[in-house]
Amino acid sequence: MKIIKAMRIDQWLKNLLIFVPFFSYGDFDLAKGLDLIQVFFGFSLIVSSSYILNDLVDVTSDREHPSKKKRPVASGVYSNNIWILTLSFLLLLGKVILFLTNLQTLIYSTLYLAITITYTLKLKYIKFFDILTVAILFTLRILLGGTPFSINLSVPLILFILFISLGVVSGKKISIMNNEKIKNSKIKNFLTESYSSEELNTIMKSSLQISLVTYLMWIIFVKTLYVNEISTIFLIFSFVMLFLFVNIFISQTQLSKTEEIIETFKDNTEILSVVLMYCLFTFLSIL
To answer: What are the distances in angstroms from CA 211 to CA 51, 204, 246?
Structure first.
């Protein structure tokens, strides 16, 4: 069904960041966990509505893209009015779900939506803001995930999510810029006019390196305060997996294969294996 495809449910994987506070702090209260699942679905519906809005705004540019032109909105399978009704329904349903869960989640989701709309309409084509804005949106996901627990997230953890997101987003931009199959795309024209390859590579590598440092700080100055030696060892292993991910991601970016991070995870067994091992060691550290 075209509407389901337009919702980009596979992209909901990004919203798993909502569960970071739950697993990072080892608070396994069942009721709060169920609330978090509800937050995940409510927020994901809101994100899907923003995807459709973005597709409507970028429809002309998407039709010049080798793969995006196949998206339901760009392909013209339904009228714009149908898509507006669809995104409105998804937005309303998502908001209702969040309202029934936690009022604070409603505030964070509204902030996310406001930044997303601003990004789609303006910031997407302003140098540096185009990268930083998306990284902030990723960071908002973990803040949203902390609301059912009233958790004050540690600064190193927030910085880790911010900088690794900044690195991944920069890698996406590099892949777009270097993709020779993309000819007359508005976003590619903006990138080539605004950035040099060296500049974007510096941002990507610096951000990913800083993310490694902040993750290590989180292990040393936060986690070791209330976990045993075995858990600390598992956390060190998770750091090693993160280090491997960073290096593989950089090498794949040089090959212009990181434009869509979810597709990269699904198509690259090396990255997928490292990410799964990272998740495993992180999970073992909190048992």
So the answer is: 27, 11, 9
Contacts of 118 (CB under 8 A, 6+ apart): 133
First to last CA, the chain: 41
Cα gap 237→235, rounded to integer Å: 5
Q: Which of 63 and 278 is assigned the larger pLDDT?
A: 278
248/258 Cα distance (integer angstroms): 11
The tokens for 170 are 């920069």
| Alpha-carbon gap, residue 285 to 255, rounded angstroms | 34
The beta-strand segments (E) located in the chain are none
Q: What does the DSSP 8-state code read for residue 56?
A: H
Rounded Cα–Cα distance for residues 84 and 16 (Å): 26
**pLDDT, tens digit, 9 for 90 and up, residues 36-61:** 999 999 999 999 999 999 999 999 88
Q: Which of 24-28, 159-163, 206-210 is predicted with the least confidence, judged by mean pLDDT?
A: 24-28
HEC per residue, 217-238: HHHHHCHHHCCCHHHHHHHHHH
Number of H helices and E strands in the chain, helices first, is 14, 0
Q: What is d(CA 122, CA 33) in angstroms, rounded to the nearest whole number?
A: 37
Q: What is the DSSP letter of 225?
A: G
**Which is nearest to 37 in space by CA: 119, 145, 158?**
145
Say which DSSP state 227 is in: S
Check: CB of residue 46 under 8 Å from CB of residue 37. no
Q: Are 173 and 130 in contact (CB under 8 A)?
A: yes
3-state secondary structure of 121: helix
pLDDT digits (tens, 9 = 90+) for 177-226: 998 888 778 889 999 999 999 999 999 999 999 999 999 999 999 998 88
> By the 8 A CB rule, do 156 and 221 touch?
yes
Candidates 52, 39, 22, 20; CA nearest to 108 is 39
